[in-house]
Write a structure and sequence with these properties.
Elements (H helix, E strand, L loop, with lengths): L1 H5 L17 H9 L3 H34 L5 H51 L4 H5 L3 H43 L5 H44 L1 H7 L2 H53 L5 H42 L21 E8 L8 E8 L5 E3 L10 H9 L22 H7 L1 E3 L4 E2 L12 E2 L8 E2 L13 E3 L9 H5 L12 H4 L4 E2 L4 E3 L1
Antiparallel strand pairs: 1-2, 3-8, 4-10, 5-9, 6-7
Length: 534
């Protein structure tokens, strides 16, 4: 039975509409409509549960009336159908309704809806441009992607269980009390007015402060994750007191925001408890006054007090659920700041599918300067043939700073110059889609090279003796390139065979080093160079 409900919604189905809309209501409905059948079933189950619960005080009042009006030896003989009906409702109907509500809320909605929203948020955010991720904390982005799904699901479930429950139960209580005597329903009616006024005044303020707490929590998470992500830099160059102050400031800021939010929660609880006390006392006093005057039966008094007390019990639960709803609204609004943003780097409408007949990449008259007129690369023409490995070498013998990133951005056609063509396969017309291009041409990030495999290290047999007869000193083996050493240099000799093991096991796109410990801890290793893989 559990599996039947768990299979009603698949979390990883592709989204019908990839881009979430920017407005709050549209954003909320964008995800809610994907499981509207389940939420409609939860709505119906909540209605049935509330109606069945409202019959319990009626049963109590009816039993009191039967006991006071009938002799003990005639109670079961005359009223057994009434008693049997009460037992069926309490023993069969109510447990079945509660079980159905729990199956829908827990098995069908809870995990499936939350993870579907997470999956679609990630699916969309991960297609943003490189600059999108450079301009924000990775931890804050991940926090918003992960928390928005449960916030939307909890908001909908709370609306369809707690808020819907008190509306149905409160309406039933008003009808039952007014049917006995209209005056008896007056305390409950006044309580509803005070309850709505309290929600109207306090809950929006709680929502705003909750949003501020959520933003502070995301900032704190982002700073902590940023420290762990860059732990090598932190260990090598950072000062401990500055790193501690960096995180301490975020914790202090989050604590102050948390205090402001909790003050409203305490004030909300005080107002609610006072309102509940007035309602229960007023209902009980009016019921006794009406009974002493002979206007209501003793069974009505026995029904009125449990009805009022049940409203008090569910009012606290519903109040905190409403508070949670507005807290989740703040979380959703914060998540929209990252998720509901259009993708700025898109393919051309006529971008064709790349058809690869042979692996080759050509850069023709490419200029790259990180948005400036002059910068890293100017008028570069380069052909990368199948199986070749390319190194970017600086004047000091190491790789050019940012060389891997620059080449990767050029290869992925990040921002092509309007007058120049990006690298593409020979004979291909038009610009292929970026994702399709990455599927056929990739690059391996920097991996350690043995010092003997460096392109500027002298080849075997090319050593010169010291004039004083000492040990042989290396003679630099330079290859002439028109663009100078800052331009691309093709690896020769041992470099053509270097890191073959790594090339056979390409690392994921997010890995910046060889994954295996033995590949990193090579004796005399230096930083490697950009390689193209086909």
């Amino acid at each position: 039975m559990f599996s039947l409900f768990e299979r009603l919604l698949k979390p990883t189905d592709p989204p019908e509409q990839a881009e979430p809309p920017p407005g709050f209501v549209a954003f909320f409905w964008h995800f809610a409509r994907q499981a509207k059948g389940l939420f409609a079933a939860l709505f119906a189950a909540g209605l049935v549960v509330a109606l069945l619960d409202s019959t319990i005080p009626v049963f109590m009042g009816r039993i009191v009336t039967l006991i006071t009006a009938s002799p003990p030896d005639e109670l079961f003989a005359k009223f057994w159908p009434h008693l049997l009906g009460m037992a069926v409702v309490l023993l069969i109907a109510r447990p079945i309704a509660l079980t159905a509500q729990n199956l829908i809320a827990n098995q069908a909605i809870s995990a499936n809806v939350s993870n579907r929203i997470r999956w679609q948020n990630h699916w969309y955010v991960v297609r943003q441009s490189w600059a999108f991720f450079q301009n924000d904390f990775a931890g804050r982005i991940a926090n918003r992607v992960m928390q928005t799904g449960p916030a939307i699901r909890e908001t909908l479930v709370a609306l369809l269980t707690s808020v819907w429950y008190i509306l149905v139960y409160g309406t039933s209580a008003l009808i039952l009390l007014a049917s006995a005597d209209p005056v008896l329903a007056l305390p409950v009616a006044l309580w509803f007015l005070g309850y709505l006024l309290m929600l109207r005044v306090l809950v929006p303020r709680m929502r705003d402060r909750s949003k501020a707490v959520s933003e502070g929590r995301s900032l704190l998470t982002g700073r902590i994750v940023d420290s762990y992500t860059n732990i090598l830099t932190v260990k090598l160059f950072a000062r401990a007191r500055e790193e501690d102050a960096y995180v301490r400031d975020a914790i202090d800021h989050h604590t102050k925001l948390f205090y402001r939010s909790l003050r409203l929660n305490t004030l909300f609880g005080f107002c609610l408890s006072s309102l509940n006390a007035l309602m229960v006392t007023g209902t009980g006093a009016l019921a006794l006054i009406l009974w002493t005057r002979g206007k209501v039966e003793v069974g009505t008094v026995a029904m009125a007090l449990p009805l009022a007390w049940q409203i008090v019990n569910i009012a606290g639960w519903v109040a905190w659920q409403i508070t949670s709803i507005f807290e989740n609204v703040g979380v959703i609004q914060e998540g929209m700041m990252t998720i509901a943003r259009p993708i700025t780097l898109t393919d051309r409408p006529d971008a064709p599918t790349l058809k690869v007949a042979r692996g080759e990449i050509r850069f023709e008259d490419v200029r790259f300067g990180y948005g400036r007129e002059s910068g890293v690369i100017d008028d570069l023409t380069l052909t990368v043939r199948p199986g070749e490995k390319i190194g970017l070498i600086g004047r000091s013998g190491g790789q050019v700073d940012g060389g891997q990133s620059a080449a990767a951005l050029l290869r992925s056609r990040r921002r092509p110059h309007p007058d120049r063509r990006p690298g593409h396969r020979r004979g291909h017309a038009g610009e292929p889609a970026r994702a399709n291009f990455r599927g056929h041409a990739g690059h391996l990030a920097a991996a350690p090279l043995h010092s003997r495999q460096h392109p500027l290290w002298p080849a075997l047999g090319q050593r010169a003796r010291s004039p004083r007869g000492g040990r042989a000193r290396p003679r630099p083996r330079l290859h002439h390139h028109p663009g100078g050493l800052a331009g691309p240099a093709r690896l020769r000799g041992p470099c053509r065979r270097a890191r073959g093991k790594t090339l056979r096991r390409p690392a994921p796109a997010h890995c910046h080093r060889a994954g295996h410990l033995e590949e990193r801890a090579h004796p005399g290793a230096r930083r490697g160079h950009l390689r193209a893989r086909f």
